[in-house]
Amino acid sequence: MKLPESVDRQILFEYLLRLGDERLVLGHRLSEWCGHAPILEEDIALANLALDLLGQSEALLDLASQVEGRSRTPDELAFLREAIDFRNPLIVELPIGDFAFTISRQFLFDVYSRLYFEKLEASSFEPLAGIARKTLQEIRYHHRHSRQWMLRLGDGTEESNRRTRRALDELWRFTAELFQSDDLEAGLLSSGIAPDRPALFEAWQDEVAGTLAEAGLQLPREEHRVSGGRSGQHTEHLGHLLAEMQILARSFPGASW
Amino acid sequence: MSSQDHSDTQWPLWEVFVQPRTGAAHEHAGSVHAPDGELALQNARDVYARRGHAVSLWVVPSDQIVASSPSDQGPFFDPAQDKVYRHPSFYRVDRNFE
Amino acid sequence: MNEPHLHAEDTPDAENALFEARLAAGEKIEPKDWMPERYRQQLIRMMSQHAHSEIVGMLPEGNWITRAPNFRRKKALLAKVQDEAGHGLYLYSATETLGISREELIDQLLSGKAKYSSIFNYPTLTWADIGVIGWFVDGAAIVNQTMLAKASYGPYSRAMVRICKEESFHKKQGFEIIAILCRGTEGQRRMAQDAVDRWWWPTLMMFGPPDEASANSEELMRWKVKTRSNDELRQHFVNMTVAQAHSLGLTVPDPDLEYDEATGDWRFGELDWDEFWEVIKGRGPCNRERMEARRRAHEKGAWVREAAAAYAAKRAAESASVTAG
Question: CB distance from A159 to chain B under 8 Å?
C-alpha cells in the first residue's frame, strides 16, 4: 500500500486503530442489547446500529492492517490484542447500563462522530476519506435515532428524565477525551490526514446543549475529566469485555471459523 | 383510554407502505408499533427497508385507514365486463391513423 | 371473484359452506372476511405461537453474539438474531389483524399461557451449537415455512413469504459453521459432534407429537393452514439431514438409524416422548431461564415505553391546542 509522503507507517497505523477500536467496542456494547431491548422494534434498531459500527470497525481495521503491511489481519487485530493495546476512548467501553445510559452515551458519541467524520471526508489519505464518506450516511441515521430518543427520554416522564440526568452525569467526565489531541494526531493534522479534534469541541457542545435543552435537560456541571484510552490505559471494563469477545480466538490459536 | 393514560402499552399500530424504486407505487409491507410518526418511520425503515429495495416509506396509524368491506365487493367493485366502453379493445381506429 | 356474495341475513351453514368453498378454490381469507370463530382462534394460536418462538429463539443464539470468534461470524449472528426479531414482528402484526392486541399476545407468553417451539428451551453450550441450530433448527423450520407460505390466511401467507426469503442465509450459515469446524482442529471436530449429539433428538421433537397424538393437525389441514403431517415433515427432515451429516463425517446419536432401500427413507429410533411433554409443560433445561429473560426485558422496558408514549401525548396535546388556539 502506498502511504502518503512523509507519514510514518506506525503512526498512521496507531491512528487507524483509534478509529477502528472505538467502533468495535461500541458496536460490541450495543450488540449486548439483542433480545433484551425495551420493545421489539428497538431490538431491531439497536442491532442495526451495532452492525453498522462493526462494519465500520472492520473497514478501519482492514485499512490499519494494510498500513501495517498485513502482518495481522483485521480479525487478529480485533480478537488477539490485549486491552493495553486497544486505542479506543474510554466512553465506548463503559457497560450498557439502562436504556437511558445507552442512549445518552450513543447521543454524545453520535454528535462527535458526525462532526469528526464530516471533517474526515476531506482527509488527504484517500482510502480513509472513502471510508468516511460511506460511513457518514450511517452516522447520520444513528444520530437521528439517538437524538430523537434523547428528546423522548428527557421530555417523557419524570422517571425517564431522572434516569437520563443520572446517565449524563455519569458519562460527562468521559466526553473530554473525544476532543483531546496529542503529538500523534497533531502530526497527522498537519499532513491533512486527521481532523482537528479540539476544534470540534465547541460545535459539539453547542449541539449537545441544544438537544438537551429541547429535551428538558442540562449540561452536567462535572469538572472531573478522565482519559487514557489512546495510550492503552483503560477502565477495568475493557478487560472483561475482551475476555468475552476474544475467548474463542484465544482458546483455539490459529483455528478458522 | 384517555389521552393522559401512559400505562404500559406496545404503542399504537402503524401500517407501512414501501416504494421499492423511483417511479413505482407504494406497496403495503406490513405494520410496526410506534409512539409517533418519527419513530414509526425509523422503525419501518429498520424492519422493512434495512435490506434496501426502498426509496420512500409511508407510515399511517392503522386506525386511520378507511377500507372497503368484503360485502362491498359486489356493488362497490361492479365488474366492468359489461361496460366495455371502459376498455381500449372497444375502440377501433383505422390503422392508417395509428 | 365470481361467487355470488353472501349478506348478513344468510344462515351460518351457508356462510360456512361458502367459506369452505373459498378454501377449496385456493382463495386467501383476508382480515375482514367472514370466517368461522374456530378458524380465527386456531389461527391466532398458531400464528402467535410462531411469533413467540421467533422471539424466544433470539435468546439461545443471542447468548453467543458477544463471543462470536471473528468479524464475519459476529456480524452474521447478530444479523440472524435481528432477523428473528423481525420475523416475530411480522407474525405478531399478522396475528393482530385477527382482532387481538400485541399487549395481549405478549401477556399470554410471559404469563406462561402461550406455547412456543420446544427447541428453544435447550441451552447453547458451545459455539458449535450456533452452527447446529442454523443447520438443524432453521433446516426444520424451512420445511415448515415453505408449507405455510401457502396458508389460506392472507396476512399469514404474506408474512411467511417474506420470512422464507430472509431465511435462506440462516441455514446456510449454520451448515457452513459446522463444515469449517469439521475441517478444523481436533477440538473443533469434537465440538461439532458434541453439538450434533445434543441437538438431534430435540430437533426431531420440534415437528410435534406423532400424527395419531396430534389434536390440531386434522382441522388445520382441512383449513389449508397445514398441508403436511408432523410425521411426514419429520421423515423428510431426517432424510435430508442424515445425508448432510454423513457428508461431513459426523454421526447422529441414534443406534437404530437404518437406511430403507425400498422407500429411500432413513428409518430412525423411537423419540423420548416423555422428555417432549416435560419440556412442553415447562420443565425443560431452560424454560424458566427463557421466560425470566423475556419477563425481565419487558419489565425493565416499561418506563421506556411509557416515556415515549408520554412524549407523543405531550406533542399531540400541543398541536391540538395550537389548532384550537
Answer: no
> Which of C74, C120, C291 to probe by mutation at the A interface, max A CB count within 10 Å?
C74
Contact check, Cβ <8 Å, A156/C301: no
| DSSP H or E run through C155 | helix C154-182
Longest dimension (CA), chain B: 73
Which residues 274-293 of C have a C-beta within 8 angstroms of A?
A: 293
In the structure grid, which three cell numbers stand for residue A59, read together? Answer: 473497514
Chain C residues in contact with B35 (beta carbon < 8 A): 305, 308-309, 311-312
Closest chain A residue to the Cα of B5, Cα to Cα: A157
Tell me the chain B residues in contact with residue C311 when contact means C-beta distances shorter than 8 Å. 35-36
Beta-bridge partners for B33: B13
Place of cell 477502528: A20
Nearest to A197 by CA among A185, A184, A183, A209: A185
All partners of chain A with 3 or more CB pairs under 8 angstroms: B, C
Interface check for B60 against chain C (CB to CB < 8 A): the answer is no
CA-only gyration radius of chain C, Å: 22
Residues of B in contact with A159 (CB under 8 A): none
pTM score of the predicted model: 0.93
User: Which of the 8 DSSP states describes residue A6?
Assistant: T
**What gap in Å lies between CA A149 and CA C216, rounded to an integer?**
44
Predicted confidence pLDDT, tens digits, chain C (325 residues) = 444 444 444 567 888 898 999 988 989 999 989 999 999 999 999 999 999 999 999 999 999 999 999 999 999 999 999 999 999 999 999 999 999 999 999 999 999 999 999 999 999 999 999 999 999 998 888 877 888 888 899 999 999 999 988 887 787 899 999 999 999 999 999 999 999 999 999 999 998 888 887 777 777 777 776 778 889 989 999 999 999 999 999 999 999 999 999 999 999 999 999 999 999 888 999 999 999 999 999 999 999 999 999 999 999 999 988 887 6
Contact C96 B13 (CB under 8 A): yes
**CB-defined contacts B:C, below 8 A:** 65
Q: What interface predicted TM-score (ipTM) does this complex get?
A: 0.97
Phi-psi bin for B70: left (phi > 0), alpha (psi -120 to 50), beta?
Answer: alpha
Among candidate residues C111, C283, C119, the one with its CA nearest the CA of residue C208: C119
Helix axes C154-182, C37-62, angle to 10 degrees: 30
β-sheet with B13-19: strand ranges across: B27-33, B13-19, B56-61
Closest residue in A to B50 (Cα) is A48
The answer to whether A255 faces chain B, any CB pair under 8 Å, is no
Give dist(CA C281, CA C269) in Å, integer. 23
Alpha helices in B1-98 (DSSP H): 37-48, 73-76
* B80–C contact, CB cutoff 8 A: no
Cβ-contact A43, C298 below 8 angstroms: no
Helix (H) or strand (E) holding B80: none
- CB contact under 8 Å between B43 and A145, yes or no, is no
- B-chain CB neighbours of C102 within 8 Å are 10, 13, 33
Cβ of B34 within 8 Å of Cβ of A144? The answer is: no
Neighbour subunits, B (≥3 Cβ pairs < 8 A): A, C
Pairs from A229-234 (Cβ < 8 Å, separation ≥ 24): A229/A86, A229/A87, A229/A88, A229/A89, A229/A90, A229/A93, A229/A177, A230/A18, A230/A87, A230/A89, A230/A182, A230/A184, A232/A83, A232/A84, A232/A85, A232/A86, A232/A87, A233/A84, A234/A83, A234/A84, A234/A86, A234/A90, A234/A93
